[in-house]
Design a protein that fits this description.
The protein is of the alpha/beta class. The protein has one domain: Alpha-Beta Barrel (TIM Barrel). Helix content is 33%, strand content 10%. α7 links the parallel β7 and β8. The two termini are 25 Å apart.
C-alpha cells in the first residue's frame, strides 16, 4: 500500500484527461497545501503554505493511514516522497522557500520526511517492511539531487526504512529528463552502495533479462515495475519462462502452464494471519514498533 499526499498537485484532473485544476463545481477544493505558496504550473491550483499545526496534522494522518493499512491486511507500505508530491515539495529548494524549521538547510527541508517516516515506522509492525519512494534528482540545477538523496537515505535507514525506491523528477514541469531504458537505475546503485541500504530500481524496465541483470550485477535489490504490468498483466509468468525459473500458477491457468507447474495456494481469509505466515514467511503481527525521537 502506497501512502501519499498530493501537496500542490492536489485537486487536479486525472492523468488521462486534460491537465489542470478541478473546480469546486466538479468536486475540486480550495484548500490545496504545500510548503510554500508556489504553483506547480500556471494551470494548477495556487496552494496555501502549510502552518506548523497543519504539518503535524499531515504527520499524524500518515501514521493513521499506516495503521489502517495494517488492519486491512497489507504487509508492505511505501511512503511516497517523490514526483512533486507534498514530501518531495518540502525536500526540494525549488518548491520549498520556507524560513522556519522546515525550510532552508538540508536538515530543515528533510524534517517533514523524517517526521513522517518516524511516525509511520512507530505505527507499523516491527517485522513488516517499510519502503520510501524518492525522486533522486529534480533534473534541474539548484534543485534536489542525488548527493542529497544519498544523505537522506542514510538518515531514513537509521529511522527504520528497509528499502529506498529510486525514481526521479516530477517537481518542476520544465525539467529535461533523459528517459530511456533503465535511466534511473544508476541512482539505485549509488544509493545502495553509499548509503548501505536496500534499493529498488524503477523506470523503463520492461524485459525479464534487463530486470535480472540489474539484480545480478548488484545495481539494486529489487526491480519495481508498473507500466509494463499494465501492458502485460502476465509479466511474472513470462519472466519465469524466459529465465527458466519455477513459479506457482493460479489453479485456473494450470491447463496452459508448462509441464510440472505447481498450483498457487489460495489465501484462507478466515485465518489470514497464520496463513500469511505459513505461505509467505511473514510472522503474525505482534504490535507496532516504537522509536524514540532522534534515534
Amino acid at each position: 500500500m502506497q501512502l501519499a499526499h498530493a501537496g500542490r498537485k492536489a485537486s487536479t484532473r486525472r492523468p488521462w484527461e486534460t491537465s489542470g485544476t478541478v473546480p469546486e463545481t466538479e468536486g475540486g477544493w480550495k484548500k490545496v497545501v504545500a510548503p510554500s505558496a508556489l504553483r506547480f504550473a500556471d494551470n494548477y491550483p495556487m496552494p496555501q503554505a502549510l502552518t506548523r499545526d497543519g504539518i503535524q496534522e499531515v504527520v499524524s494522518a500518515f501514521a493513521a493511514a499506516a495503521r489502517r493499512a495494517c488492519q486491512a491486511g497489507f504487509r508492505v507500505v511505501e511512503i511516497h516522497a517523490a514526483h512533486g508530491y507534498l514530501i518531495h515539495e518540502f525536500l526540494s529548494p525549488l518548491s520549498n522557500k520556507r524560513e522556519d524549521h522546515y525550510g532552508g538547510s538540508f536538515e530543515n527541508r528533510t524534517r517533514l520526511c523524517r517526521e513522517i517516516v518516524g511516525a509511520v515506522r512507530s505505527s507499523w509492525p516491527n517485522e513488516l517492511p517499510l519502503f520510501v519512494r524518492i525522486s533522486a534528482t529534480d533534473w534541474i540545477d539548484g534543485g534536489w539531487d542525488i548527493e542529497q538523496s544519498v544523505e537522506l537515505a542514510r538518515e531514513l535507514k537509521r529511522l527504520g526504512v528497509d528499502l529506498i525506491d529510486c525514481s526521479s523528477g516530477g517537481n518542476v514541469p520544465h525539467a529535461k529528463i533523459p528517459v530511456g531504458p533503465g535511466y534511473q537505475t544508476a541512482f539505485a546503485q549509488k544509493i545502495r552502495h553509499e548509503a548501505e541500504v536496500m534499493t529498488g530500481a524503477v523506470g523503463m524496465i520492461t524485459s525479464p533479462v534487463q530486470a535480472e541483470h540489474i539484480i545480478r550485477t548488484g545495481q539494486a535489490d529489487a526491480v519495481i515495475i508498473a507500466r509494463e504490468f499494465l501492458r502485460d498483466p502476465y509479466w511474472p509468468l513470462r519472466a519465469a519462462r524466459e529465465l527458466d525459473q519455477p513459479i506457482a500458477w493460479p489453479v485456473q491457468y494450470l491447463r496452459a502452464a508448462p509441464k510440472g507447474a505447481q498450483p498457487r495456494v489460495a489465501v484462507d481469509l478466515k485465518s489470514f494471519e497464520s496463513c500469511f505466515e505459513e505461505q509467505h514467511g511473514v510472522p503474525e503481527r505482534r504490535g507496532p514498533r516504537r522509536i524514540e525521537a532522534g534515534k
